[in-house]
Amino acid sequence: MRLVVIVLLVSSALSLAQQGSDKEPAGRTVFPRAVTQPAAPPISTPVPRAPADPSEVVDAFFLALKAGLIDAAYDGLVKGSIIAERPEGVAALKKRTQDALDNYGPVSGYELVDEKVVGSTLLRRTCVSLNTDLPLRWRFYFYKFEGAWKLVDLRVDDGLVELFEEGGRARK
């Protein structure tokens, strides 16, 4: 690179000398611009995306569980939530989920069995994972603040009987 700059300097000086001194004022030295590499394309900054709808978040969670990707499932689920600020709690959730899948079998899908809205800012989605041996009940609690839904709590258990009792109370 240094050789290229020197060659350009010499050739520019010769060119100026051939053109005559009337082009440049006396006593002034002109240095040609350095040869530069073409500018790299600017790195685009990702446009902030509005937080996903709770149904998208839950769907992505179960798709990752179905693929056996427990870490990825939770990383996506808690991203941007207060839960993510407690890594030891997330690690415990991952461990309990692995234990549950070891006991009840892998997830082959899920069903939304209940959705409850409280006011305009709270949402609970209750799902049942379709495991090979026994389904599990999952409760996702979301809070909407300034137009964005955030996961604030998650509960999982095998309390299927309660699903029938809740449904019976709601119909009366």
The overall pLDDT average reads 77
Largest sheet: 4 strands, antiparallel
Order of helices and strands: HHHHEEEEH
Distance between the amino and carboxyl termini: 84 Å
Describe this structure in words.
The chain is an alpha+beta fold and 172 residues long. The chain has a domain at 54-167: Nuclear Transport Factor 2, Chain: A. It has five helices and four strands, in the order ααααββββα. The chain has helices at residues 2-19, 54-66, 70-78, 87-104, 160-171, and strands at 107-118, 122-131, 136-145, 148-157. The chain has a four-stranded antiparallel sheet. Helix 2 (54-66) runs antiparallel to helix 3 (70-78). It is globular and about 40 Å long. The termini are far apart. Mean pLDDT is 77; it is low at 1-25, 34-38 and 44-50.
Question: Can you summarize this structure?
Answer:
The protein has 172 residues and is of the alpha+beta class.
Q: What features would you highlight for this structure?
A:
172 residues, alpha+beta, Nuclear Transport Factor 2, Chain: A, disordered N terminus
